[in-house]
């Protein structure tokens, strides 16, 4: 797929080499490409903080001590699948990129996954969440770290159903991620005996006024308003729902993919009491706090969320696998690196111990949180109260979902 002139210029402007450490002369250079959103609705959810997390992973891996020379390139995919795929192809063919990291936006990630598989390179998904990445469109070259729409639906959707929210209206971003999140949550609702009374899908990423969709939700009779979106879109939805006084009507808001970055941007009055799911929270334990403080030193206005943590942890594990396999073999076959990642247990400050399953899905718990009331917050980023923990065995989708053949006999 051809890369647009705008995409070429954006890639050229955003890409920058970042060599780390003194490598052994005989070791081939490993090149990582952080493909992210630097200007759109996910720029705070991912963006510059994801790049900082990748660079922190290089330091924590001690790449130089392991005999690795590592370079990092960055680019903005503009939330366009053709632009993202074009950058990925150009990186691999012209810049020697071995692994592509982050990739928020499920449509972009699915397109890049095809390029990575065709070129036998690695895709480390931290920002996209469609379950298709380890389901119907799974690949031996893709690792999908901690977060997908199945996990979010099981945790947040299940919690809402248990508390009496048995009728739903969805406001959904009209692309792969939104569709997947809506469909996975609707399945949870219907299996539990609930019903979907309405849905509204809006153009992404060009919508900022959600008033017409909120009006539809208000008159639907639904008990729960499910937001199948994220980033700036979710912030706008929650703000505008309060402006329309929807909470006073008795409808409960369910942000199906919410990050601490959004909770921090929202006013305390708008965010307090919202229930959400996360796979990482900076104040969960001592190791998470240690990781978060490192990143906060780099990006003090934007503390790390679970997508940022995904970029860090997946990069760290990738580099450990490269060191074990050897950089020459790693450069020769991305699928071989992913296979090695699956055989090695994971261990990092963001997620602790875990593993990568045969289909490329990382196995980590899910945590159900409630956003704290203003009086309970001790500092600006002290936002969550833990409600429940779901083990990975229950939070992650069954192996072989969507017909994925990886790992099946």
Can you tag this structure with a few keywords?
alpha/beta; Rossmann fold; 15 helices; 41% helix; disordered N terminus
Structural description of this entry:
With 409 residues, the chain is α/β, with parallel strands linked by helices. The chain has two domains: 5-147 and 285-364, 3-Layer(aba) Sandwich (Rossmann fold); 150-278 and 365-395, Rossmann fold (3-Layer(aba) Sandwich), CATH 3.40.50. The chain is 41% helix and 19% strand. The protein has helices at 5-14, 47-61, 81-95, 106-119, 149-162, 176-191, 211-218, 231-243, 260-265, 268-271, 286-298, 306-325, 327-332, 334-343, 392-395; strands at residues 30-36, 70-76, 99-102, 122-125, 142-144, 167-173, 195-202, 224-228, 252-255, 275-278, 346-348, 352-356, 362-363, 366-371, 384-390. It has a five-stranded parallel β-sheet with strand order 2-1-3-4-5, sandwiched between helices. A four-stranded parallel β-sheet has the order 7-6-8-9, with helices on both faces. Helix 4 (106-119) links the parallel strand 3 and strand 4 (122-125). The longest helix is centred in the C-terminal third of the chain and has 20 residues, at 306-325. The model is unreliable at 1-26 (pLDDT under 50).
CATH architecture group name of the largest domain: 3-Layer(aba) Sandwich
**Helix amount:** 40-55%
Number of helices, where a helix is a run of at least 4 consecutive DSSP H or I residues = 15
Overall geometry: globular
Biggest sheet: strands side by side, in what order? Answer: 2-1-3-4-5
Q: Structural class, from helix and strand content? A: alpha/beta
Mean pLDDT, to the nearest integer, reads: 93
Q: What does the largest sheet look like? A: 5 strands, parallel
Percent of residues in β-strands: 15-25%
**Integer count of domains:** 2
* Order of helical and strand elements: HEHEHEHEEHEHEHEHEHHEHHHHEEEEEH
Per CATH, the class of the largest domain reads Alpha Beta
Distance linking N and C termini: 35 Å
Please compute the radius of gyration using only Cα atoms. Answer: 20 Å
CATH superfamily of the largest domain: Response regulator
Low-pLDDT parts are 1-26
How many beta-strand segments? 15
Question: In CATH terms, what is the fold-level topology of the largest domain?
Answer: Rossmann fold
């Amino acid at each position: 797929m051809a890369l647009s002139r705008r995409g070429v210029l954006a890639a050229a402007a955003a890409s920058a080499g970042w060599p780390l450490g003194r490598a052994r002369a005989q070791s081939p250079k490993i090149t990582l490409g952080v493909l992210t959103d630097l200007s759109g609705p996910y720029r705070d959810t991912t963006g510059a903080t994801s790049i900082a997390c990748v660079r922190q992973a290089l330091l924590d891996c001690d790449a130089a001590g392991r005999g690795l020379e590592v370079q990092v390139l960055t680019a903005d995919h503009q939330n366009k699948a053709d632009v993202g795929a074009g950058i990925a192809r150009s990186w691999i063919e012209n810049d020697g990129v071995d692994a592509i990291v982050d990739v928020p936006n499920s449509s972009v990630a699915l397109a890049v996954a095809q390029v990575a598989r065709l070129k036998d390179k690695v895709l480390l998904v931290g920002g996209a969440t469609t379950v298709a990445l380890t389901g119907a469109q799974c690949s031996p070259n893709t690792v999908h770290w901690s977060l997908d729409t199945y996990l979010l639906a099981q945790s947040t959707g299940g919690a809402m159903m248990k508390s009496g929210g048995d009728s739903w209206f969805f406001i959904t971003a009209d692309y792969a991620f939104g569709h997947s999140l809506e469909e996975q949550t609707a399945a949870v609702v219907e299996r539990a005996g609930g019903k979907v009374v309405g849905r509204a899908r809006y153009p992404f990423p060009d919508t900022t006024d959600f008033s017409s969709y909120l009006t539809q939700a208000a008159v639907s009779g639904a008990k729960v308003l499910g937001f199948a979106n994220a980033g700036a879109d979710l912030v706008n939805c929650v703000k505008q729902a309060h402006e329309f006084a929807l909470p006073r009507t008795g409808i409960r808001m369910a942000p199906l993919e919410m990050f601490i970055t959004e909770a921090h941007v929202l006013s305390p009055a708008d965010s307090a009491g919202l229930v959400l799911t996360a796979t990482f929270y900076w104040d969960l334990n001592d190791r998470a706090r240690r990781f978060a403080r490192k990143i906060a030193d780099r990006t003090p206005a934007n503390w790390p969320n679970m997508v940022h943590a995904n970029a860090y942890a997946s990069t760290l594990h990738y580099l450990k696998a490269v060191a074990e396999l050897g950089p020459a073999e790693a450069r020769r076959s991305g699928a071989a690196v992913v296979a090695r990642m699956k055989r090695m247990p994971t261990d990092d400050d963001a997620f602790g111990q875990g593993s990568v399953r045969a289909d490329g899905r990382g196995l980590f718990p899910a945590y159900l949180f409630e956003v704290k009331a203003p009086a309970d917050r001790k500092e600006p980023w002290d936002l969550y109260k833990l409600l429940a923990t779901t083990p990975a065995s229950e939070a992650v989708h069954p192996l072989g979902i969507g017909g994925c053949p990886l790992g099946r006999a």
